Amino acid sequence: MSKPQEPHRPFFHFGNPFRAISPKGSKLSSRLVFLLATFEDSLAQKLTKLTPKSDNDVFSFLWMGLAMKLLCEIHNDVKTLIGDLELPVSDWGEKWLDEYLDISVKLLDICNDFSSDLSQLNQGHLILRCALHNLASTSSNQFVPARCSLDAWNQHISSRTSRVENRSPIMDHLEELLDLPKVKNSPKGKVLMQVMYGVKVATLFICSVFAYAFSGSSKRLLSIHVPDTYRWAQAFTELQKNVNMGIKINHSSGRFTALRVLDAVDERVKKLHSMIQENIDGGMKVEECQNLIVDLRSEAEKLTQGVDHLTKQVDEFFHVVLSGRDALLSNLRSSETVFGQGMEGLSTRQP
Known about the structure:
The chain is mainly α.
């Protein structure tokens, strides 16, 4: 971003926009260049904002919520740009339409999978609440049901399966759709396809990171190379490098899960379970146990708040994708109706 103390900086601060973004063999009007440059600069700023400041940020619910929020903004930006392009749906190539509708329905499926994984985490919190309720009593009789609840937590978490991992072909298919469809004799179409490439890269990358966070499987991780001709390429490369570094550290640390708060909760559950067993055997340190209960309650609350916030962000993204899909289908139906009426009127005037 340009700084106030740097006057006379050109508006397009990434260099000559015509050389940088005009597809080979095509001529874009100054208006189309401006629209494309504005979108790509905005995308670069969003990707920069998402770049984690430290390794601990990558799989925090705060970072994941920001990632989903920015994804909503990027998809809303696309809807705005499509309107600014004034490109009628009737001018969209059949391949463009098929690809857009295919991608949108798969993104809706992925949102449902993310929501299912988050719902499993909420179920685990209900088990924790039961254990903490029992532990709130000073009576030693409550330790046995509390231990049972902690056993139930361990069983629930260890048996947790990610729907994203089970539906991996969806992610594979989205990766295949990164290639740009060919566009001929349509400057607006070329701009649209270049914009859609940026959207697909950002969406696929964020979804792959979420899939890793929920499943713990590195099979869904991607390494996407973006040509430096795109104005947002450097910001994306930096984001991908920092996130991958966080993933590498997560693997080497031997954490139970990629989700940091969930890992913190699980660590305290195991310690508390061991202390309760000591109490039953007659050797627990009461004060140490009480401190751990307070600590677990705090981490469990963070887990609940994080899951609730991220669930809302995933729901919002679902509705953004759905509204964009519905708007396109509505415009397509309107175009077909107008075209049909025009042809009907033409036929009545035929001799």
